[in-house]
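#lab-general

N.A. 3:47 PM
ok so I finally got the sequence cleaned up, no stray characters, all 469 residues accounted for. can someone with queue access submit it? mine expired

B.Y. 3:52 PM
send it over

N.A. 3:53 PM
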Amino acid sequence: MKIAHSLCAILALVPVAAAQKLTPLPKDLPPYAAEKPFAAPDVKAVKLDNGLTVWLVAEPGFPQIALDLAVEGGYGADPADRPGISQLLADTLSQGTATRSAKQIAQEVQAAGGDLQATPHADFIEVSLTVLSDKAEPGLAVFSDVAQHATFADDEVSLAKRNAADQLRQQESEPSFLATRAAARVLFGDHPYHVTAPTLGCINATTPGDLRSLFMQRFRPDQALLIAVGDFQAAPMLDLIRSQFGQWKAPDAAPLAPVPPPSSDPKRAIFIVPRPGSVQTTLEFAAFGPLRTDPDFEAAQVANAIYGGMFSSHLIQNIREEKGYTYSPFAVLRTYRAAGVMTTRADVRNAVTAPILNEIIYELNRTVTTEPADEELAAARRYLVGLEAIQLQSRGAVVNELAGIWADGLPPEEIGAYGKKVAATTAAEVDAAARKYFPASRAAIIAVGEEKVIREALAPFALPMETVQ
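B.Y. 4:20 PM
back already:
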């Protein structure tokens, strides 16, 4: 009975919703206010005698400091027989040093009003800490101890391995994880960037000795960046950093070699990840995009916003608002130091797997063949500039952004340049980026779901199909 009443209520609202959709907006609405771009921070860059790079952003006011240590060597630097070991390294990093137990580290961080965590990325591992401003000295003492003297005790590593295995099993039940992992394998093949998470084989085989060796290889001052953003004065903070990190020495071994760029575009095919019994298909288009250091990076970002990166984009208006095929499609452009990746994803019910694939192909090629209208271009630029200003409100977000800029091989001034470049992007530049990066023929297609359903639905597209795991 409740279902029947709900269905009747929904059906009763349909004409109203349709009428509202067709009702034009009032003509006397005020114009958009002037854009308020992100106010770029003043970054003081210093290099210590031991090679450690330090970026300081003094922001008086709220009594908190965000700290971030980025060290080169993430998933892309993992040994071939230990893919994903960076995750285990990050998980066990703060679980004990030569002078502090895991419990003592947690207690001291908490006493400083902080939170300590480590996160692996493709090109680097990021260790983050937030502390109250008046607890900067004890907070930095724990931070430097973890960064220089982690011990990877046997019992802590065993616990981390069990947790990692449980997490992997849980992730493998999610179609989004399966799509991301398959897309990386399809795009990169055997290239180091194909690693997105540890394998079960890596988890089972990794020993505390492996983690200690990896720690010594990667955590060294000459391939690290320390960022501090918050309520402090630059000179005393730099003195404090020197006192805690100045004795950190690099080993004699050579630093990590940079990850090379991938050699070729992915194969044009449909790659099926079987998920028996699934009532939905997760579709992902994956192609290479620009590096953040490329001159057309901002133009590609604007093109992506128009195509599928903002709510008013062509893709969302088409397959969500007009056709109702899916609730939350999205398109995103990500960058590593040696590669850029463009992704489109949509989760759809099995019955519309073929129609939605057709519409994604249509919208990608429409982006290539149609120059953006002035209104679309203005909306996309306004969206990206405003989004940056919103996202970088917190100090933690600023240190994360600066770490990513460093990992991509750019100077700290880039944090203030991005919005200006976006705002100055022209229609001709967006059109050129679209022609270069957005043809549907450049993308591999990953489909996660019931294999028989996918093969039957997508057969009319006459593309090669391969089953992957």
